[in-house]
Amino acid sequence: MLASAVCALTLVPTAAHADNPIVQHVYTADPAPLVVGDRVYLYTGHDEDASTYFTMRDWRVFSSVDMVNWTDHGSPMSLATFAWADANAWAGQVVPRNGKYYWYVPVRQRSTGQMVIGVGVADSPTGPFRDAIGRPLVGTNEIDPTVLIDDDGQAYLYWGNPNLWYVRLNADMISYSGSATKIPLTTAGFGTRTGNASRPTLYEEGPWVYKRGGQYYNVFAAQCCSEFIGYSTAPGPTGPWTYRGTVMPTQGSSFTNHAGVIDFKGGSYFFYHNGALPGGGGFTRSVAVEKFAYGSDGSIPRITMTSQ
Ligand code: FUB
């Protein structure tokens, strides 16, 4: 319990609140934290209403220097940013490079009706973001991009549901070399699912890939539905992956969950979403955060929600 909720649409720090969720004046989902200097930026999706499917048309940005007081920076990117997209402003991630900030997002392409990955770009972490290339970067009719820039400078874009794909991004971050490649979804790599013969592993969606202590992590939404958060580790950016277990068990009224993990000012933080706000549920979610400590072997402990 460490988040101070943002209760008013404001560009100044808000009064402290004791509990999760972090944002309490609007429904948010799919957290993607990014540390820039002494500030953490939190990029989220925006659930508009409790209809029978996701109503998501823009993304939101919040920031904090202390993980207690959060500033609302509004909505610097929306479906309107991408003239070729018409729906589904879903789970993305922002990555800095070349003095710019690249926001990788899944959206529906109007001409094909398929989910593809678009890229926004801005000179500041709070935007405004513009369409970086005027068309989708890559598309397999799948969702949920995450980006790792390895120590040698090679960037990898991962995404997918039901598959898990990766492609090597070029240094410009808006093009790639080679072709999209499927990461083998083995039960050793991603655990064993129950009750769905066509999807034998736990991997569902929402990968969050990062490197820490020489080890590569993929923290992802597992099983369906309801989802829990599991994780795998690997000695390299493309595997081989080993399933390491549950991070956050299924809790609360949201049938999805979505992870984002950072180290910030000496602590480790696990962001997720649930249906904790009044009126909350599967299509009216809220982003929350828990502080945690890695095991001495780099393992991630089991983390439970302080609100649901
Ligand atoms: O928010 C829409 C979709 O729900 C995301 O893309 C998935 O990760 C799940 O959270």
TrEMBL record:
Keyword annotations from UniProtKB, A to Z: Carbohydrate metabolism, Glycosidase, Hydrolase, Polysaccharide degradation, Signal, Xylan degradation
Site annotation Important for catalytic activity, responsible for pKa modulation of the active site Glu and correct orientation of both the proton donor and substrate: residues: D144
GO BP term (any one): xylan catabolic process
GO molecular function, a single term: hydrolase activity, hydrolyzing O-glycosyl compounds
Active site per UniProt: D30 (proton acceptor), E205 (proton donor)
Domain of life of the native organism: Bacteria
Signal sequence, renumbered to the chain: 1-18
Transmembrane segments: none
Record family assignment: Belongs to the glycosyl hydrolase 43 family.
Name of the protein this chain belongs to: Glycoside hydrolase
Organism: Cellulomonas cellasea
Residues shown, of full length: 1 to 308 of 586
